[in-house]
Design a protein that fits this description.
Layout: H1 2-16, E1 39-44, E2 49-56, E3 59-67, H2 79-101, E4 110-116, H3 120-136, E5 143-148, H4 149-155, E6 160-161, H5 163-167, E7 188-193, E8 198-205, E9 208-214, H6 220-230, H7 237-245, H8 268-284, H9 290-296, H10 300-327, E10 331-335, H11 342-355, E11 358-360, H12 371-383
Parallel strand pairs: 1-4, 3-6, 4-5, 7-10, 10-11
Antiparallel strand pairs: 1-2, 2-3, 7-8, 8-9
Helix pairs in contact: 1-2, 2-3, 4-12, 6-7, 6-8, 6-10, 7-10, 10-11
């Protein structure tokens, strides 16, 4: 892998030396290229997943992601290791995405890249590569498009995979019978939940999104990961909690729930309540470690996972119901990495059945960080010629 990546980087750098245009910090407004189609290459590198995708006239042709297992032993993402892994992965990932899509570099109309929020070192790898590719294609007027990572998660609801992708098994959990996918009409209310964000967003169009509620401290995914770490579960902890929760009793423990005004969230107190519950059990049984407690108490780990998951979901859904009712919105969607949680997905199904709402849940392949959602968001920006200057720099934190 390392030798392959190094060779690819060398080949591409040599290729770029044939195109040495003067530095250009403006936008490209001409779409002339070898193809009559609007072809968008999407690049995502905001955290620890290197991903590239190709969309042609709104249809997803490829979506390739390389994950990083190096962070597991540290119990969280190490920014420096993440950026180094991105440098090794980005060329072979993009090369594979173009080959699967059967697209030549000369056919690309625009490169859509995640500009933020995320880890700056990781974002720099993606944005730098995107700029280099656009510069190399300056004569063909290839445009650069910046994408907000959070908006990308929401736009995952509009990704439409090609039948060929599904038939070859490139999209997890989808069959040809699932096509075309259901896409929400505007406006809709989206619950955006991930390891770093928990937001309620009113989506009026691909270019008009308003945050009406958000966490004031920790995110839902962060709460899952930190509670999992207390239990000694591997990183990332969210999927492990989801797995063990299926074998536990969600009513076994009652944790403190935040009382935050309006539609905002808070999960820091919930984490503290979880920690104090375990601390009290250790004192009662005169034990020294969580490992001893879990070994001596049958099904305790499963019950704790089920209870914390049920509490987080209840907090999320309570604010969603309140916002949807107050705003009079009958379409609701969920997006972000935590939208892969089976309990949350079922909660949305139950919400739709109970309140007669239209519910939209993304395929598993589009829940975690991926370039398909970035390419999709970029495609809509491309249609309105919303381009980005080459001197734009990535940002670590932002709002939609």
């Amino acid at each position: 892998m390392l030798n392959f990546a190094a060779k690819k980087i060398k080949d591409h750098l040599c290729d770029f030396t044939h195109h040495r245009p003067a530095y250009y910090a403006g936008c490209y407004h001409s779409h002339s290229n070898m193809s009559s189609r609007n072809i968008i290459l999407g690049i995502e590198s905001s955290c620890d997943d290197t991903s590239a995708a190709v969309i042609a006239d709104g249809l997803l042709l490829s979506n390739v992601t390389a994950s990083q297992s190096v962070h597991e032993e540290y119990g969280g993402v190490v920014p420096e290791l993440a950026s180094r892994a991105h440098q090794l992965n980005i060329v072979p990932v993009i090369d594979t995405a173009l080959r699967r899509a059967e697209i030549e570099r000369e056919e690309i109309s625009a490169v859509a890249v995640t500009r933020g929020p995320g880890l700056l070192g990781s974002l720099l790898v993606g944005t730098s590569f995107a700029k280099g590719l656009v510069i190399s294609r300056r004569q063909a007027a290839c445009a650069l498009i910046e994408v907000n990572h959070l908006q990308g998660h929401i736009m995952a609801h509009f990704v439409e995979p090609s039948p060929e992708m599904v038939e070859k098994g490139y999209i997890r959990g989808l069959t040809l019978a699932d096509l075309p996918l259901r896409h929400p009409d505007f406006p809709f209310l989206c619950l955006l939940v991930s390891g770093g964000n928990s937001q309620l967003v009113v989506v009026r169009s691909p270019h008009d999104m308003e945050i009406v509620g958000q966490t004031i401290d920790d995110a839902a995914g962060e709460a899952f990961d930190k509670c999992a770490k207390v239990l000694g579960l591997p990183y990332p902890g969210g999927p492990w909690i989801d797995k063990l929760a299926k074998q536990g009793n969600p009513a076994a423990f009652h944790f403190a729930k935040p009382n935050i005004p309006a539609y905002d969230y808070s999960f820091s107190g919930l984490k503290t309540s979880f920690l104090y519950t375990i601390r009290d059990m250790l004192r009662e049984q005169h034990l020294d470690s969580v490992e001893q407690l879990l070994e001596l108490t049958p099904n305790l780990k499963e019950d704790l996972c089920a209870s914390i998951q049920a509490t987080v979901i209840e907090v999320l859904m309570t604010k969603l119901r309140l916002a949807a009712k107050d705003l009079g919105i009958k379409r609701v969607a969920v997006a972000g990495g935590v939208s892969a949680n089976s309990g949350l997905r079922q909660a949305f199904v139950d919400y739709g059945n109970k309140y007669g709402a239209e519910v939209f849940i993304p395929p598993f392949a589009f829940t975690t960080d991926n370039a398909a959602m970035i390419a999709e968001a970029g495609y809509y920006k491309f249609l309105r010629e919303d381009f980005c200057p080459l001197d734009a720099v990535p940002y670590a934190k932002t709002r939609i």
